[in-house]
Amino acid sequence: APRLDEALAYNRKAVELSDTYAVAHNNLGVVYRRLGRVSDALRHFHRASEIDPHLPSARNNLGVTLLQRGRPEQVALAVDFLRQAVALAPRSAKFRFDLASGLVAAGRAEEAAQQFAEGLRLDPGWLAIVAREAWRLATTDLARQPGAADEAIFLARQACQATGFSQAEPLDILGAAYAAAGRFDDAVTTARQALDWLPAHAPAEQRRAIEQRLRLYEKRSPYQASAD
After folding, report:
1. Model pLDDT, residue 146
2. pTM (2 decimals)?
3. What are phi and psi of 57, to 5 degrees?
4. Alpha-carbon gap, residue 21 to 29, rounded angstroms
5. Residues 55, 58, 60: CA angle, nearest 5 degrees
6. What is the pLDDT of residues 41-74, one digit of tens each?
């Protein structure tokens, strides 16, 4: 991952030059998370929040990283950080969607639905962005980077949560993300759900494409998109 290595070196240097620069710590945390170095990421997000308590992205990154870590006992703390981010930047659709994902993890579906709805009101195109990025992380060379598959799963699940796990395209993307992470049983189940939710009038090519991916997952193989 040459670009990530460059970003790591650049942001490390920025922190060395000014340890009290909150944005530099936040950016370094993002790079560490993409590299799969979660503890390092959390350390720098915490430092950014200490330096600048009003930096919403640092609070949001703390919450998202804790959610991606997948420890049930940390969900409540993650939701607290995500709420703080929304309070600091209430017009951010991304922060609303991330908070909604935290609320889903906390079993608070009604509140989550409200946040998803508000996020879509603020930016109707956000779900398409989330789905596109999840697909890119799951099905291109980026999937080989340490934290890419976990991020793809988080984003794809977000798209599925916002659509009630009842639309074929987000489910198809989530299946690809699970496969990229080596979670082939989940990938198979999710691809089958995508086929179940495919409308009768859907193009035959779309059904064939999902069926082909399903066969790959059944063979314990991820899907690799062809280069444009």
Report:
1. 77
2. 0.84
3. -65, -30
4. 13
5. 110
6. 999 999 999 999 999 999 999 999 999 888 899 9
